[in-house]
Each structure stands twice: as structure tokens, then as C-alpha cells.
Specification:
Distance between the termini: 130 Å
Oligomer: single chain
Number of helices: 2
Number of domains: 2
Radius of gyration: 38 Å
Mean pLDDT: 75
Low-confidence stretches: 1-12, 64-72
CATH topology of the largest domain: Immunoglobulin-like
Strand content: 25-35%
Number of strands: 13
Length: about 240
């Protein structure tokens, strides 16, 4: 035969060209694995750096709010006002507060509120609730005679009334029947205001915890006594003092 047969069991050495091709494939595979590992490591590092930046920003924000208490107070006052403007059935659409002496040392906080019946039925306020205290007594028309709140605080659906003393805040009286007022720290609700206005600048923030109303709701001939206490305190930025 013209072809020489190799003996069985003989070891065949790879040619030089075959060896180079095999080495090339191995090098490429190792290089690919190394590149993938590098990319994964780089992605993990970038994620950790980003997470650290987010945490630092959050910590700085918290620190600033703690360092500048006025910023936190402004946010809390906005939340309080938004809550009470949308409360139901009794909403507070506007309010103000300021310090006054009025010959009664050491003075006290005056405030006014415009309250509105946001419900579907008429209501009659019977008590105002403040900081665990309550009163059904109010003044009518300036420092006039004391009256029972229920006699002057009937509100039809959508109707507004004013609690407060208008001249202390620069607007005219809405007239008897639309106005009643009381001074919490003066007689009937001493201790009702958790934080009073200050006599000196920056005058502070009036805070009333557990503020609310007791009222009678008239539903299809029935009179139902109910109570509305706010989930958020009343927080009013104080104006300059009245004196």
C-alpha cells in the first residue's frame, strides 16, 4: 500500500500551528472572563458610591432641619393649615394669632378663626375643645355679656362664622350673629393653648393640641351629638404683638 499506517497506541504530537491556535483560544477565553469580572466589579463599586451619596444627602437634610428649627416649623404649620382647611364637617378656612396684654399681666394669646360647615347638614356648636379642656361659654360683640355657645353658633351647610376679636387683626366685625369670641388664657380655657405667642420678636408660634369642637348635627329631624378632634394640632404663626 502506498500509505504508511501508524502503529496503534502511538502518541501523536500536535503540530506547531495547532498548538498556536489552541493557545490563542485559551487566551481569548481567559481575557473574556477577566473583562466580565472587571465590569461586574466596576458596577458594584459605582452602586456603592451612589448609595453613599444618597445617604449623605439624607443625613445632611435631617441635620439642616434640626439645626434650623424654623424650617421644620414652617413645614408643620403648612401641614396644619392644609389639614384644617379640608377638615369635615367643621373646617377652619383662615386664622391668625398675636400676643396682647390688655391690662391682664402677663398677657395672653388672642386668635381668630373663620370656621365653615363643610357637611351636608346643619350643625350647632356646643363646645370648643383645647388641650384636654373645653368650654361652652363665649363673649358676644366685643367684651359684651357671656353667652352659651349653642345660642350663637348655628351653621347651615356652607355657612361661615368667626371666632375672635376682629379689631385685634385689622378687619371689621362681621356683625353679631356671625361672630363670637373668647380668650382661652383669660378665663374659661386657661392652659388651653400649648404654646403661646411671645411679646417680643420673632413672636413665635401659637400651638393648640387636641383642638376640636363638640356639636349637634341635625339630620332629617334627628339631633345627633358629635365630637370632632383634629388629628393635627392648630399651629399659627404669631403676628407682632398688639400692645
Amino acid at each position: 500500500m502506498g500509505m504508511r499506517l501508524r502503529a496503534q497506541g502511538a502518541i501523536v504530537k500536535p503540530s506547531a500551528a495547532s498548538a498556536r491556535r489552541s493557545l490563542g483560544r485559551t487566551t481569548i477565553e481567559l481575557s473574556s472572563c477577566s473583562t466580565a469580572g472587571t465590569l461586574q466589579g466596576q458596577g458594584a463599586t459605582e452602586y456603592l458610591v451612589l448609595l453613599a451619596v444618597v445617604l449623605i444627602v439624607a443625613l445632611v437634610s435631617v441635620a439642616l432641619l434640626g439645626f434650623f428649627p424654623g424650617m421644620a416649623s414652617d413645614a408643620q404649620m403648612t401641614q396644619s393649615q392644609t389639614y384644617w382647611q379640608s377638615a369635615s364637617p367643621i373646617a377652619i378656612t383662615e386664622w391668625g394669632a398675636r400676643f396682647a396684654v390688655d391690662g391682664v399681666s402677663p398677657g395672653y394669646t388672642h386668635f381668630y378663626m373663620r370656621i365653615r360647615n363643610m357637611g351636608m347638614y346643619p350643625i350647632r356648636l356646643t363646645k370648643i375643645l383645647m388641650n384636654g379642656k373645653s368650654t361652652s361659654n363665649v363673649y358676644t360683640g366685643g367684651w359684651g355679656p357671656v353667652a352659651t355657645m349653642s345660642t350663637v353658633a348655628y351653621l347651615a351647610p356652607g355657612e361661615e362664622k368667626t371666632i375672635g376679636y376682629p379689631s385685634y387683626f385689622g378687619f371689621t366685625s362681621p356683625g353679631y350673629g356671625n361672630l363670637f369670641f373668647f380668650v382661652p388664657e383669660y378665663r374659661y380655657l386657661q392652659g388651653g393653648i400649648s404654646v403661646n405667642c411671645s411679646r417680643t420678636a420673632p413672636f413665635g408660634t401659637a400651638v393648640i393640641n387636641n383642638f376640636g369642637f363638640e356639636y349637634t348635627e341635625y339630620i332629617e329631624g334627628q339631633q345627633i351629638t358629635k365630637r370632632q378632634v383634629g388629628a393635627k394640632p392648630v399651629m399659627i404663626k404669631c403676628m407682632n404683638n398688639y400692645d
